[in-house]
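Hey, quick one: can you model this chain's 3D structure?
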Amino acid sequence: MPRRQLPEDFDGWALFAALDRQREERGLSWRGVAEEIWSMSDELNAERPGDHPIAPATITNISGNGDTSCQHALFFLRWLGRSPESFVPDAGDTDAPLPEVGPGRRPRWHLGRTYDALDARRRAEGLTWKALADELQCTPSQLTGLRTARYATSMRLAMRICRWLGRPATDFVYAGRW
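Sure thing. Here's the predicted structure for all 178 residues.
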């Protein structure tokens, strides 16, 4: 099932526009933006020299499909000093700032915690994975795969899940050492 942008979804195009405004205000190239974002975790980067830095295309690709991975989105939001909900129309009172992580960590989305909360509510509501996937406009495997996913899901789906749960994104964000 192809992903569709819903009016209440995380607005990746607005995220890109905010990144572009900040880039222009600071007189940076996209490479400069990527380098600044990566350097926000310079202590961790020094400890983990094999990690791949953010590529400029990872940022600029958002302008094409209006989405990015939830892990990359956290890097970008950290640089902007914004919350995920600030890019979700009518987010209500679930807006909370990202945790401060310092230069020795990176903000990371805890996919296992997301899966556990999703599964608990799904069971409480008596929904099958298929029924929940239909409600969230994704595939069942996109939801069940969160349990074992190592890297990410899309930010759009991550925020749909948060809205369905009625919880702020920061409930699922931690200060990672990778």
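One thing worth noting: The first helix runs from residue 12 to 25.
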